[in-house]
């Protein structure tokens, strides 16, 4: 028997076959399998709960690919669509009830719900076929239940004596993720195999492992897995941007509400109640001008000035009374005397007589006719008692209108959504604080991600926590992220999400933090390895959100604007949490990339009033922070197709406005 055991992992799920990002069990199973050095996952697929599709795929994998082991996940329960056992059983030449019993016996010790699995197992030709339930937890428990004896069983199914395998197993089981012995490692690397592909066996194939030479990507998946054993293809499906965005936004639930005083700390907050005025504005009949309160029917002419009303609190709680033929001197904002029906501005009058010392005006001539009500603000003419001045869902702007209105009617506290706190952690052995005064050593870089993202967060009005820099060590990363999760609604890391052996974020999230990774790659440029997960909340309540953004500075900045800021806005209760966009004519030809691209650009209004957009920089490499300089927008460029490989000058393209127009 070859010492490399070739495995097929088949996800059977209606949902996952429609939306590969929903497939969590398949990738989990792949990681468990590949953590064992003797296995290689050769083919994976994701198909619906369809009897025919299951039979077609399992048959092809057993008969055409002659795999050693086929593992299925999903469709073993009591659901109406669950039909994996019914589809697989007739394909088996011999059933292996012992294996099924072992799995059952172990699972039932963990949960009585194991009784609801109808999983089967057996041999078809020389291939061992096991059906597991469709949850990552069950998959792990089931696989671990049989991991120790599987190579032996496979050997026997292939007509071997099982001796060699049996001897090896005497050393005891090795939990997944633990490095193999050097002897095992040797056995693995010495082996080679040729095989075909598993394309087109019904349903949507999520990803394939093709032959060794063709494997150019690198992945570290499984803490403690030696580099030579890493997956060489990312197990995370490359999902479209729209799917990634809805995967994030569907999981963001606005934070609870709190009562807060009316002051500048409200800026950016979202009201969670209607605000009804309990005071009128103005609360008294007030003059709009500096001049004379009059009775309009008196008309132009000379009148004695019998009273004075200067804007100030009334000393006795009442106003004076104006009789026909009298006028009162008044200032802007002054309370009108009882009986006054209009105000004449001082410019439209003449002084006829003053007191000897000049401190009093005694007689004044009104030069022009005035209309009733002129220059008077009646009680409640701005805001009436009972009027709804602000609506639930409204954002308290930094412009001042909302705070001004609230202040004008004497509201003491308002109910607003809590503001989220986001924590930023830079990761990487090479990363040093940007303000480190020392000269950089070769291989070191200054941390530009944290200051950038913190600045953008502050500008957007959100609170943040600086979690510093963590080196690429599982212990440091785990501790730093846990620290962040205890205090922040969202934790954002940058770096360590791609395929290098020091890219530890994904395995740490899954294996150390109990996170559910909803996606680990997006078909976008920049930002391909952007990772989003939900993590159990250490303080209880809503799960925390984790964005593990790529380390490249532009990738981190662009994905922060595209995912994290909208998520922060939704957490804060914003109804409009996505960026606004405009259609702008490109000022130059733009070549399209194979990935949909978010080019950094400047949108501006031409003197003729049309909207144009220009790339910030021809070189839009994701490491090149200068391509962010001056950007107020991200051009939304579609992926290249056979029909279209560029956008020509003058053509219109959607641009997200991430800052003010230039
Ligand atoms: N074999 C493959 N390699 C890579 C792939 C791939 O698909 N297959 N994807 C590439 C893409 S696309 C990106 S984006 C990057 C993402 O890398 P990581 O998220 O793993 O980040 P690191 O490896 O830690 O760092 C990448 C790059 O960024 C620099 N960096 C990291 N942190 C900071 C910081 N705080 N401030 C400034 N610069 C930072 C780091 O030094 C590296 O140069 O992976 C590609 N690789
Ligand atoms: O997707 Mo990466 O962000 O191109 O550089
Ligand atoms: Mg990397």
End-to-end CA span: 68 Å
What structural category do the secondary elements indicate? alpha/beta
**How much helicity do the residues have?**
10-25%
Q: Bin the strand percentage.
A: 15-25%
What kind of sheet is the major sheet?
6 strands, mixed
Indicate the radius of gyration in whole angstroms. 36 Å
Strand order of the largest sheet: 2-1-3-6-5-4
Number of strands: 35
Tally of alpha and pi helices: 15
Low-pLDDT sequence parts:
165-220
- Approximate shape: elongated
Ligand inventory: ligand LQZAQKY5, molybdate ion, magnesium ion
The average pLDDT is 88
GO molecular function: ATP binding; metal ion binding; molybdopterin adenylyltransferase activity; molybdopterin molybdotransferase activity
GO biological process, one term: Mo-molybdopterin cofactor biosynthetic process
Cofactor: Mg(2+)
Keywords: Magnesium, Metal-binding, Molybdenum, Molybdenum cofactor biosynthesis, Transferase
Would you write up a description of this structure?
By secondary structure, the chain is α/β, with parallel strands linked by helices. The strands form 10 sheets. It has a 6-stranded mixed sheet, sandwiched between helices. β15 and β16 (361-366) form a beta hairpin. α2 (25-35) runs parallel beside α6 (136-146) and α12 (449-459) runs parallel beside α15. Magnesium ion binds next to loops.
């Amino acid at each position: 028997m070859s010492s490399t055991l070739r495995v097929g992992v088949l996800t059977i799920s209606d949902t996952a076959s429609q939306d590969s990002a929903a497939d969590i069990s398949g990738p989990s199973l792949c990681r468990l399998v590949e953590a064992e050095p003797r296995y290689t996952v050769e083919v994976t697929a994701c198909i619906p709960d369809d009897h025919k599709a299951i039979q077609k795929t399992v048959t092809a994998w057993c008969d055409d690919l002659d795999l050693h082991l086929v593992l299925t996940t999903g469709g073993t329960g009591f659901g109406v669509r669950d039909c994996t056992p019914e589809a697989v059983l007739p394909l088996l030449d011999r059933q292996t009830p012992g294996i099924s019993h072992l799995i059952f016996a172990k699972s039932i010790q963990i949960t009585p719900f194991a009784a609801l699995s109808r999983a089967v197992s057996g041999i078809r030709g020389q291939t061992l076929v096991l059906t597991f339930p469709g949850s990552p937890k069950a998959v792990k428990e089931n696989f671990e239940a049989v991991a120790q004896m599987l190579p032996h069983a496979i050997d026997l199914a292939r007509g071997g004596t099982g001796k060699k395998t049996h001897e090896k197993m005497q050393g005891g089981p090795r939990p997944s993720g633990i490095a193999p012995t050097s002897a095992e490692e040797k056995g693995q690397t010495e082996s080679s195999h040729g095989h075909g592909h598993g394309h087109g066996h019904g349903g949507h194939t999520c990803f394939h492992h093709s032959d060794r030479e063709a494997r150019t990507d690198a992945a570290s998946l499984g803490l403690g897995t030696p580099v030579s054993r890493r997956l060489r293809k990312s197990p995370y499906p490359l999902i479209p941007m729209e799917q990634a965005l809805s995967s994030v936004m569907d999981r963001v639930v606005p934070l609870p509400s709190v009562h807060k005083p009316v002051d500048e700390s409200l800026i950016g907050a979202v009201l969670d109640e209607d605000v009804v005025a309990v005071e009128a504005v103005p609360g008294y009949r007030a003059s709009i001008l500096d001049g004379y309160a009059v009775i309009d029917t008196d008309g132009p002419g000379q009148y004695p000035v019998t009273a004075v009303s200067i804007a100030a609190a009334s000393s006795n709680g009442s106003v004076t009374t104006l009789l026909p033929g009298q006028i009162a001197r008044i200032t802007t904002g002054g309370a009108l005397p009882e009986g006054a029906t209009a105000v004449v501005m001082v410019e439209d009058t003449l002084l006829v007589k003053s007191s000897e010392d000049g401190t009093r005006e005694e007689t004044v001539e009104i030069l022009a006719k005035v209309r009733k009500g002129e220059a008077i603000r009646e009680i409640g003419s701005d805001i009436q008692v009972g009027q709804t001045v602000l609506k639930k869902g409204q954002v308290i702007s930094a412009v001042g209108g909302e705070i001004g209105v609230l202040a004008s009617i004497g509201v003491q506290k308002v109910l607003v959504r809590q503001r989220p706190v986001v924590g930023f952690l830079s990761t990487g052995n090479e990363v040093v604080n940007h303000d480190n005064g020392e000269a950089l050593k070769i291989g070191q870089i200054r941390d530009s991600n944290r200051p950038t993202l913190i600045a953008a967060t502050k500008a957007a009005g959100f609170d943040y926590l600086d979690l510093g820099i963590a080196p690429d060590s599982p212990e440091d990363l785990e501790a730093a992220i846990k620290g962040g999760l205890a205090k922040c609604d969202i934790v954002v890391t940058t770096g360590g999400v791609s395929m290098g052996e020091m890219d530890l974020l994904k395995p740490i999230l899954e294996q150390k933090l109990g996170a559910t990774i909803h996606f680990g790659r997006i078909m976008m440029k920049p930002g391909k390895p952007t990772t989003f997960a939900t993590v159990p909340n250490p303080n209880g309540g809503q799960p925390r959100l984790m964005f593990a953004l790529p380390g490249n500075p532009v990738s981190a900045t662009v994905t922060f604007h595209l995912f994290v800021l909208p998520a922060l806005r939704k957490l804060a209760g914003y109804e409009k949490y996505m960026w606004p966009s405009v259609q702008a004519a490109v000022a130059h030809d733009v070549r399209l990339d194979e990935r949909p691209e978010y080019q950094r650009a400047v949108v501006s209004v031409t003197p003729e009033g049309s909207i144009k957009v220009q790339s910030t920089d021809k070189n839009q490499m994701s490491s090149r922070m200068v391509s962010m300089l001056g950007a107020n927008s991200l051009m939304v460029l579609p992926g290249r197709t056979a029909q279209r490989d560029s956008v020509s000058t003058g053509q219109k393209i959607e641009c997200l406005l991430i800052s003010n127009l230039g």
